[in-house]
Design goal:
homodimer; alpha/beta; four-stranded parallel sheet; two-stranded antiparallel sheet; 6 strands; about 15% strand; globular
C-alpha cells in the first residue's frame, strides 16, 4: 500500500469521512506541504499522549482533574449527567450552567452489549455517596432518543432511594424552528408540556 | 490553549472541516483511544516525510519518480496535463487512459498572483523538448472553468510552434444527468458539439 493510500485509509476511519473526502484531505496536506502535515500529526500525537478522562467526572482534559472539576467556582451540588464529553461542550456553550458534570461514556444499549457495567455509573453513585449529602440535584441530560431515555430512567431508579432531586432536560419544539418541520412525537410532547404564558 | 482546543483548531484548517466537525473528529479519537490517534498521527507524519512530487511529472508519490512515470507500459507519447495530483486519480479511475501526466500544481489566476511562472510549466516544455519528437499529443485536462480554460489556452499557444497535437477534454452534458439540472452554458456547448448518431 502506498503512503498516500495508507493515510487516505486512516482518514477514512474518521466519522463522516468517506474515501473521497479522505483523498481530498490528503491532497490538501500534500498541496500545503510537509510542515502543515507535521503540525497536524504532532497535535494528534499530543492528544494521544496527554488527554485522559478526568478522575472525577470522566470528561476529557489535559490533567488528572478536568478544567471544570478543578474550577472552585463551579457548584458541586448539581451534577449534569451526559452521554459523552462532546455533550459537556454543548451544555457549556449555553453559558447557563454553573454545576459540574458526569460523563457516562455512552448510553445503555443491550443490543450492542452496553449494560450499566459498561458505563461510568458506579463512579457516579460513589461520587454522590462520598459527597455525603452535598449533592442535591442530578440533571439527566442523556440524548432524547430511545436509548438515552432508557439510560435516564435506569439512573433515576438507582438514585431514587438516595432522596435527591433528579431532573431531565425538557423536550419540545426547538427555538427558531418551523412547526411544519418538527416531528410528531416532539410536537405531541411540546403540546402536553405546554406552559402558561 | 488546551490540547483538545489545539487539535480541534488543527483539524479546522482542513478543507470542508468546520469547528463543529473538527470537534466531533477529536472526540471520536478520544473515544476510540490513544492507539487510534497514534496510528493517524504516524500515517500523516510518514506522508510529510516520504511523499514528494515526481521529478518528471509533478504527481505525488513515495519515490523520486511516481508510479505512473516509472511504469514502462505507460505510453509516454501522450501527456495529459492536469491542475493537481487529485485530478490524476480522477482520470486514472476511468481506466481509459494509458498515457502519462503532467501536474501543473494549480491554474493561472492573476488575481491570486498565480502566473505561468508559479505553475510547473517550464518543466512541461522542457520535457517535451528533451523527448525530441517522441511526444505526439498533449491533452489539456484543466478544469472546465474560466481559469482552467485560460490556462489551457495559454499552454496551447506556447505549444503551437512545437507542431504537436493539442487536445482538450470534451465539455457537455454529464452522463446520467437530467437536462433540467444542467446549466445553460454546458447545455449550449453540448448542443454546439453535437455528434451524429
Amino acid at each position: 500500500m502506498s503512503v498516500i493510500d495508507r493515510v487516505t485509509s486512516e482518514f477514512s476511519r474518521l466519522p463522516g469521512v468517506g474515501p473521497r473526502t479522505a483523498l481530498r484531505l490528503v491532497h490538501h496536506l500534500l498541496r500545503t506541504g510537509p510542515d502543515e502535515s507535521r503540525r497536524l500529526a504532532a497535535a494528534i500525537e499530543v492528544l494521544a499522549e496527554r488527554v485522559r478522562p478526568c478522575a472525577t467526572c470522566g470528561n476529557f482534559g489535559d490533567e488528572e482533574f478536568c478544567a471544570i472539576c478543578s474550577n472552585p467556582r463551579r457548584d458541586t451540588s448539581t451534577i449534569c449527567v451526559v452521554e459523552g464529553s462532546f455533550d459537556v461542550g454543548a451544555v457549556e456553550r449555553t453559558g447557563r450552567y454553573g454545576g459540574v458534570y458526569h460523563v457516562l461514556g455512552g448510553r445503555l444499549s443491550p443490543l450492542d452489549g452496553i449494560g450499566p457495567e459498561q458505563l461510568n455509573l458506579r463512579s457516579l453513585f460513589e461520587r454522590i455517596r462520598s459527597a455525603s449529602g452535598e449533592v442535591r440535584e442530578i440533571i439527566l441530560a442523556t440524548n432524547p432518543r430511545v436509548e438515552g431515555e432508557a439510560t435516564a430512567v435506569y439512573i433515576e431508579r438507582q438514585l431514587r432511594p438516595m432522596g435527591l432531586r433528579v431532573t431531565r432536560l425538557a423536550t419540545g419544539v426547538p427555538v427558531g424552528s418551523d412547526l411544519e418541520f418538527v416531528d410528531g412525537t416532539t410536537l405531541a410532547q411540546a403540546l402536553e408540556a405546554r406552559r402558561e404564558m
